[in-house]
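Table S2 (continued). Query chain:
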Amino acid sequence: MQRMRMTREEYISLYEKYISGKCTYEEQKVLEAYKDTFEPGDQEWDQTRMGDREVIKQAIYNELSASISNHARSRTIRLRNWSAAAAIALILISAGLYLNSHKENPVAVNPKPIRFKNDILPGNHKAILTLDNGSQINLDDAKNGLLATENNIDIKKVLTGQLEYSAGANQAVTQLKYNTLTTPMGGEYRLILPDGSRVWLNAGSSLHFPTAFAGKERRVDLKGEAYFEVTKNKAMPFKVFTNDMEVKVLGTHFNVMAYDDEKSMNTTLLEGSVQVLKGSGKVYLKPGEEVVLNKTSGNMNVSTADIEQAVAWKNGYFIFSDENIESIMRKVSRWYNVDVTFKGSMNNKDFVGTISRNKNVSELLRMLELTGAVHFSIEGRRITVMP
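Corresponding output:
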């Protein structure tokens, strides 16, 4: 079989086409077969100073294939307008050229260096349930089954990471009582409310809610971020209150992000319709739209939403779309329960990419580093970010 040739520019163009899902079957096969002809530069290879040529080629290919193995959920992280494949290739090619130009100082090339001696596991299902009487239940340690009964409402842990409220057999609710579900940094939890509505609670968040809904509305109070799938009930609208903002719905799917350390509060609608109120301001959303409320000015702006990015956390992913490193590291801090510090200016560095939230923090940081724009160190539970 004749060996094909492809320029770096042609490869990058084809890779971008693959990521966007526009590759034909033939182009996909060409891309996957390219490992046999990928060459890190046209210069003469010096094995003494640059290491085993085939080992280096395989290292490059391993990184490329890892990032394109599933374009729908790729582990790519790149600077805006540059693919991770291009970044990996250019970084390793540049390393080879650098070694060639400094022959007086031979350097051993390790194709798979250990970047971080310390590593941090991702978050998982953990939360604290505070009952109406103030007592607390650590849901990490609780076994599946009935946890408590409050005012004829059964509170059950039905699955790992899921809590359910249901009325006791043929018993009326005599008065409202309130519970609070709180996830720590590095935790997430699911909740089925008494009306059957479902809530996914992100890390560093809390939801305050009645153990049974009564009256003219179903009200819950949110801090942090949650995704809601609300059961329809026209006679009793569902309302989410957070930082003086109100989201009113009848039955719908939507996400609310309202962390204290973020500059805005975002409400993203997937299905149905919602009304968002803040002071005298009021906006209506249609599916596929989001409203961004600027905390400083109080202005609310409605625009087309990136649905996949908005609910990525609920689906087990980080998705960055032209996102700056400060915003990315706030998400990292919450999910991995780490402190983050910055050294040096990180302005004008926006990233695009997707990676599973089930990965250790080292893999996320390593993929960010492959862009060549940012560098990290880990000490204990502190991550330092440097340009």
